[in-house]
């Protein structure tokens, strides 16, 4: 083993001595590069993998988190995310979950907004105005956090204006709110999601109505303008567009239904139908109350009898005798009896109330026109009218109109168009035929040319082989013959001769190296 190592060392030294300066530089540089790569790999394998703990836009929040990490002696790195101004705090992956839980228990991060946690501490000397302002700020912060919880929303800002209460209701102003949203890349909100945000804000702010909530995106596009109309009954441009699309779709469906049915009778392309609808988009609430017959619920009867005594002579004789008590005057007396009967009857009235809410989108009036590509008589026209009325839901009471006519369609334009199409197809056929013929000719030419080239190549190789057959390859000893001219040697013989001359020169200039090389070969054998 020792001899083998000594021999390996000797061979390495000899190999190093035989190398020129360029070869030695390459070997040294490669070794240094290999050591550097190994060092970097070792370092990366021993270093912990960092992951994102939080991505924040608020520098104050980032500073608080960094301070907490320093207190907990957790290594961290800060990564700038570019032009959006956000900073990512990165820590080792093994500590991310535990650190997030610990920071969450301490209320970090808060997202850069202040919520109802500001009421945890009571401020001495705070007035009602200060408390109301703090409450409004906390409410805005809580709404911001809730909206930012949506997967499509990156950041949000909520602004609420709560007017001062007034003693007069007609002078009381309504509360308003504005929400600005920044979406995540390739994300947006649907109409029902925008409506959900409006409901969230209106139900969180006292006295806030849906029409007083404005939602915009970071580019200034108003997202809430299509959700509801104004208080005076006006509708937005988007609602008008939706209604027009609904009307066109309804008309198109009726037209296709009538045309497809009549084409089964008269043939494809032989019927044209046009429908014009007047749609009622008003929302109607109906209340109906009816009264039935009176039904006795309770009856109360009462009777009162009274008796009255009277003197037949009237009031007595004028004078002292009739006016002094104790003295009776002469005259006749009489009595009368009176009876009064009262009856109280309470009747129950049957009532019937009906409340109906008519949804918008009904048809107020319909106009249908049908044209058939042929002459039709009155009986056929009557049959077509009955069919169309049944298929389209015709209602005479609301003033619907129907017109059916039969007349030949003009085919001049279609005939001219068919003629042009036929000519264009004919020209294309000529072009494609010529291109195919040209491609065939080129293909045949390539094949023939290839065959000719291969044949000529084989003939040349055969001729060269015939010329070289008489010549025999020379040995190494015969190459030393000076009488053989250089031009008569083959390339292989010339190369063999140059190698032999080089070996002889090396043996003359470095005989010791040649001897050492021979000894090495003998030892290996």
Mean pLDDT metric: 77
Largest sheet: 3 strands, antiparallel
Q: Helix count, per DSSP? A: 13
Which consecutive residue ranges, at least 5 long each, have pLDDT under 50?
468-474
Beta-strand residue fraction: 15-25%
Question: What level of helicity do the residues show?
Answer: 40-55%
Distance N terminus to C terminus? 17 Å
Biggest sheet strand order reads 1-3-2
Number of strands: 11
Estimate the global geometry from the Cα principal axes: flat
SSE succession: HHEHEEHHEEHEHEEHEEHEHHHH
Q: What does the radius of gyration come to?
A: 56 Å
How are the secondary structure elements laid out?
Layout (H helix, E strand, L loop, with lengths): L1 H17 L2 H26 L3 E7 L2 H13 L5 E4 L6 E6 L3 H10 L22 H21 L4 E9 L13 E9 L7 H14 L3 E10 L19 H30 L4 E10 L3 E28 L8 H4 L9 E26 L3 E11 L5 H15 L8 E6 L5 H57 L7 H4 L11 H19 L1 H14 L1
Parallel strand pairs: 5-6, 10-11
Antiparallel strand pairs: 1-3, 2-3, 4-5, 7-10, 8-9
Question: Could you name the key traits of this structure?
Answer:
525 residues, three-stranded antiparallel beta sheet, three-stranded mixed beta sheet, 13 helices, 11 strands
Describe the protein in words.
By secondary structure, the protein is an alpha+beta fold. It has 13 helices and eleven strands. The protein has helices at about 1-20, 20-45, 60-70, 95-105, 130-150, 190-205, 235-265, 320-325, 380-390, 410-470, 475-480, 490-510, 510-525, and strands at about 50-55, 75-80, 85-90, 155-160, 175-185, 210-215, 270-280, 285-310, 335-360, 360-370, 400-405. It has a three-stranded antiparallel β-sheet with strand order 1-3-2, covered by helices on one side. The protein has a three-stranded mixed β-sheet with strand order 4-5-6. Helix 6 links the parallel strand 5 (about 175-185) and strand 6. Helix 7 (about 235-265) packs across helix 9 (about 380-390) and helix 12 (about 490-510) packs across helix 13. The longest helix is centred in the last third of the chain and has 57 residues, at about 410-470. The two termini are about 15 Å apart. The model is unreliable at about 470-475 (pLDDT under 50).
């Amino acid at each position: 083993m020792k001899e083998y190592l000594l021999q390996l060392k000797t061979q390495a030294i000899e190999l190093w001595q035989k190398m020129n300066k360029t070869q030695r530089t390459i070997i040294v540089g490669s070794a240094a590069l290999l050591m550097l790569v190994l060092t970097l790999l070792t370092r990366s394998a021993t270093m912990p993998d960092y992951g994102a703990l939080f991505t924040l836009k608020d520098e104050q929040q980032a500073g608080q988190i960094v301070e907490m990490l320093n207190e907990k002696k957790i290594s961290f790195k800060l990564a700038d995310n570019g032009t959006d101004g956000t900073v990512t705090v990165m820590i080792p992956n093994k500590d991310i979950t535990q650190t997030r839980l610990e920071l969450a228990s301490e209320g970090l991060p808060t997202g850069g907004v202040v919520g109802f946690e500001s009421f945890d501490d009571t401020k001495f000397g705070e007035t009602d105005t200060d408390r109301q302002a703090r409450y409004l700020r906390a409410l805005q912060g809580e709404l911001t956090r809730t909206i930012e919880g949506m997967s499509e929303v990156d950041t949000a800002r909520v602004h609420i204006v709560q007017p001062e209460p007034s003693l007069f209701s007609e002078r009381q102003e309504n509360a308003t709110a504005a929400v600005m949203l920044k979406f995540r890349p390739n994300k947006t909100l649907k109409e029902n999601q925008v409506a959900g945000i409006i409901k969230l804000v209106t139900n969180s702010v006292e006295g806030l109505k849906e029409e007083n909530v404005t939602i915009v995106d970071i580019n200034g596009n108003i997202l809430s303008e299509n959700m509801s109309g104004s208080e005076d009954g006006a509708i937005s441009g988007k609602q008008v567009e939706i209604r027009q699309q609904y009307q066109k779709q309804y008309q198109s469906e009726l037209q296709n239904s009538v045309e497809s049915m009549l084409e089964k009778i008269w043939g494809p392309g032989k019927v044209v139908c046009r429908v014009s609808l007047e749609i009622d988009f008003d929302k109607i609430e109906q209340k109906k109350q009816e009264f039935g017959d009176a039904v006795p619920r309770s009856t109360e009867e009462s009777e009162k009898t009274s008796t009255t005594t009277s003197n037949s002579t009237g009031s007595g004789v004028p004078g002292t005798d009739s006016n002094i008590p104790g003295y009776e005057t002469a005259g006749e007396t009489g009595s009368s009896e009176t009876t009064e009967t009262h009856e109280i009857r309470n009747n129950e009235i049957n009532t019937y109330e009906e409340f109906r809410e008519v949804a918008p989108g009904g048809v107020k009036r319909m106009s249908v026109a049908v044209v058939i590509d042929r002459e039709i008589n009155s009986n056929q026209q009557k049959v077509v009218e009955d069919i169309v009325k049944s298929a389209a839901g015709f209602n005479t009471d609301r003033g619907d109109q129907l017109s059916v006519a039969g007349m030949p369609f003009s085919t001049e334009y279609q005939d001219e168009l068919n003629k042009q199409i036929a000519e264009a197809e004919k020209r294309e056929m000529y072009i494609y035929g010529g291109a195919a013929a040209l491609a065939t000719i080129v293909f045949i030419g390539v094949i023939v040319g290839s065959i000719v080239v291969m044949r000529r190549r084989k003939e040349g190789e055969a001729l060269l082989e015939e010329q070289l057959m008489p010549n025999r390859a020379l040995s190494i000893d015969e190459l030393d013959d000076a009488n053989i001219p250089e031009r008569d040697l083959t390339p292989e013989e010339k190369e063999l001769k140059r190698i032999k001359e080089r070996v002889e020169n090396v043996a003359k200039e470095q005989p010791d190296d040649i001897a050492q090389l021979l000894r090495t070969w003998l030892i290996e054998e």
